[in-house]
What we know:
41% of the residues lie in helices and 9% in strands. It is mostly helical. A hairpin with a 5-residue loop joins strand 8 (454-458) and strand 9.
Amino acid sequence: MKQKHLKLFRVVLAVIFLVAVAALFVDFRELIPTAWADRILFLQFVPSIVKFITIPALASTGFIIVLILTALFGRVYCSVICPLGIFQDVLAWFSKKFGIVKRYKFKKALNYLRYPFLALTVIFLLFGSMWILNLLDPYSSFGRIFSDIMRPGVLVINNLLAVFFEKFELYFLYRFNLQLITWRTVLIPVITLILISWLAVKYGRLYCNTICPVGTVLGFLSRYSFFRISMDASTCTKCGKCSFACKSQCINVKTLEVDNSRCVACYNCISVCPESSIKYVPVTSNAKKNTIKTDGPRRNFIAKTVAYGVGLSGISATMLAQEENERPAGKIPNKKNHPVSPPGSVSLKHFTDRCTACHLCVSVCPTSVLQPAFLEYGFMGMSQPHMDYGVEYCNFECTKCGEVCPTGAILPLTVEEKKLEQTGQVKLIIEKCIVYTDNTSCGSCSEHCPTQAVRMVPYKEGLTIPEINTEICIGCGACEFACPVKPHTAIYIDGNSVHQVAKAPHIEELNHESSDEFAF
């Protein structure tokens, strides 16, 4: 392959990866089988590492392949595989189409920011918190942007087009219900999108080379990659076109050196060089390495950020106590000991230790009961999905979240296992039930319960009242969702810190005794 064609080859591969990953998050018509998620996300670096820690198997070794590719070819992950990196390139490309033409120039590496971000991530992980990694992992950031912002936008466009074509009696598009979007849901994705867009348009790949911990880790390895960008001093005229095109701002034309730790292997420099002085070639041990030696102290940056990291790791969410005696029944909050994590997540600790908050499970959930948490898991669990029964309930036979989870935070379940997976237990505050307070018939909770853990029993003349059986409750939340007492329901699910196996519900057999009498 000619050197000039490297950029085209890279762009084609990048588009394929970007479209495939983006489609997983915006596929509201469920055209992509959930089983394909593992294949599409196999090479995503952080999810692969987390999954390998959880399930050490061949299917979770994508990060090893990424490390091998980096050792051979440099940071091709950042330019070809990482969806957030490619998304930044798309934003920069569109900015040029709107007349925002950016000519980059060489800048020294911002190591005073680069290494502390990585240090914070490592420190929080050592203290058992995924919080910083969840915020900075490029795949998860991309997932939140497309799940919480782009997907609703696509649904709006779909519904508008469906209404338009219905006027012409064309029904190949059909409308989908839009879930209520709250500021809690979109706060972090919107901030991330604004930051990414601004940096991509103004500074190219500065995010990847300053904030992203994956970029920093791969940057260490790419310094010594077998193939690297090299400049030929004998033919180079120092015209500067390569530096203007370098979105990593890592080409120093004056010294004819390339900082390969920041180079993302986009090959823009090769495509614009008029003298073909820039080559992507194997670098032997005897060859001169045109790599900028980054300066500045590196040994003390961890010590300087330990105090900050430890301080933040101690922050937890607390709810202010409120007086209950003076408020109507529906105004009294329910005291839940634990949030409800998705079925298949084993326990709250297993889930919060492994979930990177990419929101792929949120996207595929057919009822939208999976919602990004605010403070349900505490401050460090912000944005990790939880079961929000104020929005909907969990379908009795649905196992999609476990099928698509790329990290092993939600393990796959069979339908039979799902029907007995107890994520929480039902609680009933009889004094809040409208049968008790208003002497009126209801029974919504019992009608919606798939296991009959909630059933109606005689109460007063002509009335029945709920009775619960926690042993057969699976914590699906159908009762809580259906309860008409608002805003705080009379019946609710209190999450299990460790998921249990519920007892199988008793199924009454029909009486098949034969009778000689006519059936009617």
